[in-house]
Amino acid sequence: MTARRLALTAFLLTMLPNLAFAAEEGGGFMAWVQTFAPIAILLVVVTFVIGRLPKIDIGHTDAFRRRRVMNWLPLGLTYAFLYMGRYNLKISKFAFENMEGAEGAGALMGNDAFGYIFGVGTIVYGISFVINGPLTDKFGGKFSILVGAGGSALINAIMGVVSLSLMHGWAGSEWAAEHFVTLMSVLYALNMYFQSFGAVAIVKVNAPWFHVNERGVFGAIFGILISLGVYFAFDWGYLILNNLGLEWVFFVPAILLTIFWCLDVYFVRNTPGEAGLKDFDTADASSGDDGPRLPVIEVFKKMFRNPIIVTIALVEFCSGFLRQAIMQWYRTFAKQTDEVLGLVDTFVFDNWGLLLCCAGILGGVIAGTISDHVFNSRRGPVAALLYGTMALLAITLAFVYDTAWVGWLVIVMSMCVIGVHGMLSGTASMDFGGKKNVGVAVGIIDGFVYLGTGVMSLTYAFLLPQEELDAAGKIVGEAADPANWIWWPVAMIPMTVIGTLLAMRIWNAKPKGKAKAAAH
Q: Residue 2: what pLDDT?
């Protein structure tokens, strides 16, 4: 796919909701320009990075490359919309926190409630690999993406119905308000169980289609589509909330996931052979392994005995903590301290999803290109360099988090952590798990990512100040004082240091197939 075509795809995907928003807001030409300025930035970034990606020749035919695009493009967009159906919980917080709980017991979803609900969901996600990794290796990535997208669509639709019930006082709404945290924790945990199929599926499907030496650069291209998921989740989510209503924050992802479920049935194939093409040696850890599949317990033992897999998983535990500490809490921090810091209505706040998307694109491209073309397809050096940068930025953030620099600092940190995440969860899991056992490998690694996220959620639920609302719905009390948010940046520092030290341990790691290992 050419840079122009993918840029056009991004434009079509992002244009319609922004056009509707511009029409809704009115204001003439300048309002139109202001609305489309972030989209122009996105398109420039997409076109620039794709047009300059180095080409690696593995000997694939043009027919193979065309069919491969037809395979990963709908799969990638499905995963992007899974993000939208995952992080919409954060979007809904801004509506739920303005609703009173049972008997006026405070906001339905305050900082602590969000931390518990999101934390429970991410822990469920993190441990689901015990089931979903082996299922994916047995039944294939296509099976997993269909189960994940279908299940998440259903649960999102149910959460939309719950939202309608609470807003309109339907039968059972009082019970739902009284047990809101428990109800949403259960629903979000179910959603995250189905969501966990997505990460395993995406790597399982792509492992047989990409050689080790082209996976870094492919990870950069694919990261563009994944980063769009963050944009869909936040910028689309806020537009939907403001223009359509709370329930549509859940209904829209459900509809989109249903559409892409149908496209995946038609287009996605597990291997080139299933698509009528010739399978090839991908030169990963499964290379030369033509024996029968090991029992699931033996595969888990094999992975946990592999020091490289274990180190990658621990690095990604830190990534899970850091990525979501930024994505889930920056806008809450900005909103609740706005009377003092004035961060609301700034460029970073208003275009949060788009800037995270651009950060993800740049992080993926930088990491993938350097890995394949500077470090000979080694993933460790890139992870170590990006983590070292994050450590310096986190220390700086602890001193300037209450200034106008905070937004741009966390955007650069996001670029680094998303680059690491793409390199390790998306690429190294293929390399060291091998296409044969990649489901279990990525399940373990991505499971640790979300265990880290769960620890982050519960940590901040305990450390961060609780918001209080006055009669006008204005934030008052401890949460309005930036000084009480110091633990937000400080808690990130140890994770960046630990991640840097762990990444340095896999500096020279490269996958070895059976034949290569025997030769040594």
A: 47
Helices (H), 56-110: 62-96
According to DSSP, the β-strands at 468-469 and 475-476 are: antiparallel
Q: Classify residue 104 by burial, with Cβ atoms within 10 Å: 0-12, 13-18, 19+.
A: exposed
Q: Going by C-beta distance under 8 Å and a sequence separation of 6 or more, which residues neighbour residue 500? A: 384, 387, 388, 390, 391
- At 469, give phi and psi (nearest 5°): -110, 135
Secondary structure of residue 100 in the 3-state scheme: strand
Task: Say how far apart CA 418 and CA 368 lie, in whole Å.
Answer: 11
Query: What is the rounded (10 degree) CA torsion for 327, 52, 270, 132?
Result: -20
Nearest CA among 110, 78, 118 for reference residue 320: 118
Tokens of 341: 């810091």
Q: Consecutive 10-residue runs of the chain (520 residues): their mean pLDDT?
A: 49 50 50 56 63 67 87 89 90 79 57 83 83 87 95 96 87 82 93 91 84 72 73 84 90 95 94 87 63 70 84 92 90 88 88 83 80 80 93 95 93 91 75 70 81 86 77 71 92 96 89 51
Identify the pLDDT of residue 107.
63
* pLDDT for position 449: 85
Q: Which of 202, 157, 236, 174 is nearest to 430 (CA)?
A: 202
pLDDT in tens, 473-517: 676 678 888 999 999 999 999 999 999 999 999 888 877 655 444
Tokens of 372: 């394949």
- In one-letter notation, the amino acid at residue 191 is N
Set out the domains of the chain in order of their start, with CATH numbers.
Answer: 70-275+296-511 (1.20.1250.20)
Contacts of 351 (CB under 8 A, 6+ apart): 38, 235
Q: How far is CA 145 from CA 148, 149, 151, 261, 438, in A?
A: 5, 6, 10, 8, 15
Q: Are 319 and 499 in contact (CB under 8 A)?
A: yes
Residue whose entry in the numeric block shows the structure tokens 């639920």: 461
